[in-house]
Amino acid sequence: MSHTEDSADESVSLEFESLVARYYRSLYKFAFSLTQAEADACDLTQQTFYIWATKGHQLRDLTKVKTWLFTTLHREFLESRRRHSRFPHYELSQVDAELPVVSPARVNELDSARVLQALAQVDGVYQAPVTLFYMQDCSYKEIAEILDVPMGTVKSRIARGIGQLQKLLSSDAHDHTERGTHE
Fold this sequence. Notes:
By secondary structure, the protein is mostly helical. The chain contains nine helices and no strands.
């Protein structure tokens, strides 16, 4: 890299740093007024500067930097709220009662080939959520995003799918038990 390129990179870096120094506090205050949460306000402010770093060069009128930054922060806030309302985050302790109960003893009784065979018999609409949750260790939120369905739909499909799977496996176990006594 030549000396002039070093100087150009340094001036761009200084410009970014001076922009952050000039607007960070007011952007953060605006973000905090929107989110009412320190961590969310910090995230929004950082996201705004990240977007500036990647797209700010497209702004033709540099007198509008402040407006651009505040508009970008507000748009990011609205997008995060839309995302949160479509895919709310739940702590495991909040949804513990909704999770299917499978005892460790029951899990140890099952062999994976039987489970996979039974899973193939579960209604198609329930197969993907059950597979993603139990076999791919995806969270409800991730499954909702992958399948493009609401979180409540994911939870009900997993619950119904597990219900069908348990019926199939218990009837399968019952069949095996009967065959063992008749043979």
